[in-house]
Amino acid sequence: MSNEMDKEIVGHDYDGIKEYDNPLPGWWLLTFYGTIIFAFIYVAHYESGSGNSLKKDLEIALAQIETLKSSVGPIKLDSEEVLLEKAKDPKLLAVGAEQFQGKCASCHGNELQGLIGPNLTDNFWIHGKGTLTDVITTIRTGVADKGMPPWEGILKNEEIQALASFIHSKYGSQPANPKEPQGQKIE
Ligand code: HEC
User: How far apart are the first and last CA of the chain?
Assistant: First the structure.
């Protein structure tokens, strides 16, 4: 006599342990067929050339690095006159002001009056004579042994130029509690 249960037995019977022929769960089958369909799409996508090969991916990544390098790499400095002209741009000054508060104010003071680093508003300079070219150079290369970090490669060239322009716009601003003069007086 066979009942409903018997029909589902596959015929494997090991010491009384029986295997039933239950259907596989729906979610499992869906995943399984899904992987087969995915394989076809995958092969078609990459073999037809519409998907990037690893080599192409590498080329794209390298190109991105190159673009990044050209925006932070060795600076092509304009002449002092051109820099001065550009330094009037309010947008550039706004970028400089923002960068300064975020990256420089901790050492040079919110008003550039000097704290750990020198006062940047007076006419005393340790490095150069306070021209935009000088200031850009100091910001780029830093003064490692005196605690002024180098910013080249960390900030973009435009940001460094913006910072120098912002500092330039604060010359003679006579902030409260200035740090004592450091360096050479520039007439
Ligand atoms: C960790 C502290 C620190 C930070 C942050 C810092 N500086 Fe300086 N900076 C110094 C010190 C210290 C000096 C003086 C170096 C020396 O004695 O030669 C200096 C010098 C300078 C000078 C030259 C001043 C002169 O008299 O020649 C400029 C310009 C300058 N910093 C700009 C900046 C700018 C712009 C930033 C932000 C991007 C910045 N610094 C961030 C500490 C700092």
Answer: 116
pLDDT tens figures, 141-170: 999 999 999 998 899 989 999 999 999 999
The predicted-structure confidence for 97-141, as pLDDT tens digits, reads as follows 999 999 999 999 999 999 999 999 999 999 999 999 999 999 999
Q: Is the CB of 148 under 6 A from ligand 1?
A: yes
Distance CA 118, CA 107 (A): 8
Q: Is the CB of 96 under 6 A from ligand 1?
A: no
| Cβ-count burial 152-186 (b if 16+ within 10 Å, e if not) | beebbbebbbbbbbbbbbbeeeebeebbeeebeee
Q: How many whole angstroms separate alpha carbon 31 and alpha carbon 140?
A: 56
